[in-house]
Specification:
Rossmann fold; 20 helices; Beta-galactosidase, Chain A, domain 5; 3 domains
Amino acid sequence: MTFKELDLIEPILKALQQTGYTTPTPIQEQAIPVLLKGKDLLGCAQTGTGKTAAFAIPLIQRLYQSDHKKGIKALILTPTRELAIQIGENFDQYAGYTGVKHAVIFGGVPQKAQVDALKRGVQVLIATPGRLLDLQSQGCISLKGLEYFVLDEADRMLDMGFIHDIKKVLKLIPARRQTLFFSATMPSEIEKLADSMLTNPEKIEVTPVSSTVDTIRQSVYFVEKKEKKDLLLHLLKNPEIESVLIFTRTKHGADKLARILNKSEIGAEAIHGNKSQNARQRALTNFKDHTTRVLIATDIAARGIDVNQLSHVINYELPNISETYVHRIGRTGRAGHDGIAISFCESEELPYLKDIQKLIGLQIPVVKDHPWVTVEGEKAQAGKTEELKEKAKANKVYRGSKSNGDYWRRKKQAQSRPRKIRRTKEILKMQATIHNEFLTLTVDTHGAEAVSLKNAAGEEMLWQADPAIWKRHAPILFPWTGKLVDGTFAAKGKTWKGGQHGFARDLEHTLLRAEGDTIQLELRADDAIKAERFPYDFVLTSTFRLEGKTVHHTLQVTNPGTEELRFGIGFHPAFNVPFDAKHTTTDYEFRFDRPESPVILDASPNGLLSGKSYYQWKNQQAIQLTDDLFANDSFCMAGLRTGTIGICEKDTGRNITCRVEGYPYSLIWSAPAKPVRFVCIEPWHSLPAAATDPQDWEQRAAAACLAPGESWQTTLSTTFER
């Protein structure tokens, strides 16, 4: 089939001919006739299948054939700036002879040029959710006349925390419209969203992830980490590698590799979330124009990159998620062109390679003839040596039943095994920093405490610990929350001193991992802790993970000892209020996601529970913030039905929202200083002591009681709509 057979108008056919496209891809062949008929569409398709043209071409044609009334008629919502720009470039290609005008808007850059483009009048708006809602709230955008709505990469939207933004957008657009919904995967939440948006849609599914690589020539080089750069320089001597996209797992790794290549007079630029939007776009333009031969990217930054006739993709580091491999190499071999994908695999990455080969259903050919072949590589190629078998067994620490000795033997081996710590500049300062497109998080090893969280605009959102007011940022509360009677507890025939909120926040934690989107730390009960603070064995693991605009903080407690472990636990994050200099205390309120009548557990002035309770608010969904709200300390709320508690800026809707579902107690608090400088939202699994409580630890109400070998965990997820 040709595009001409799809009943496309001459101006579009002329534009397609100029781009060199004559034959539609499967999704284009199936989707274009459906969309020209005005039907809703549910498309399950990966990036690189031609889905942009599948929806852009029929939209352009229908708008060209309409009455050309002023105003935005089509909205295309996409998760990233890069993808928005790419879609805009496609519209430039396909709409060149139609007069259909479009604009692209996204965050991270000044809005003036985008607003000016909107004022000149457009029929198609391509947007990321944040900037769309921002400009709409300013009155720069009206969607009342919208006829077509495209939601692109819905699963990615979900992953990046945009689901609430999408729901806000849906409230702004007409109910009567043609809706196009695209997602690479269809988890249950995406299916629910699609069902709520679409009316009797046609369903199209093309190219499952595991088969997208069939037309790409793949190979793998076994090479150890320290020699990867030498192998890369060796390969790049080949003039046939005209344009190559190289993937690294980290931003630091991308920058380092770019410096190495440029020092060797190989033109290279890095693209990742720490680069400014202008720098990223400049690097991408240079690469597409072949001004730059090599583009080095992280996975998030590369999402949506589409470069015509890209000859090579190199996985300098294998991804730890096998589907990511497919997305990476799918950048080459597009639109019927040949593509070559080369992967470097060090011995530590062998499990990743195994998972990738399992997913794609083939053994990737191994290149043996190169100067840096390793013994480990040859063993990996064979895949049957006893050494590799033992290594695989050792890595599966928790496999097997707890009732047999194998489980405990492996666990003990794992605990005694030296841990590898990534030595970045941040870590050497006893802090670790991770980034994504929206957030930059810094965690201190002292207390495993988040000490800084900045949004994409560089605004600090965590309280910065003024000792004169309150000297903490976001402490962990463990192994108890609140205060103890007389500041002590009794255990094993001894009285132990214990300050407020336990001691985990006051000790140095071991940094286990700081790479990608994750920071992980650990606190173990050593001899000093058991002699001076707490006579029970424990391992407290604190994991911070970024996902879009959300920070997930997971606390896991494991009992490695021989007796029961009882503990309390909670979170105590503090957020800057006001959000900016334009607002004051009364511009904010705490919000539930439903009306609440919270039971307030009363505390005496000494911080111990009095045994009384009362209602401060009844059937309210919002609590007004005032400078006097916390004059008598915190509000400990029990029995909430709400899934979330947030602090919200009333005039703009900007908010910081904590998911408290599953927590029996939720507190709000600030220091009594005026004006209010910060607020805390604190989900707890246990309570302070009551004045009448016994001091015996075994009699204390606990968040959990763990038998030897058991683990328990809880997660606080906080979303920053800033």
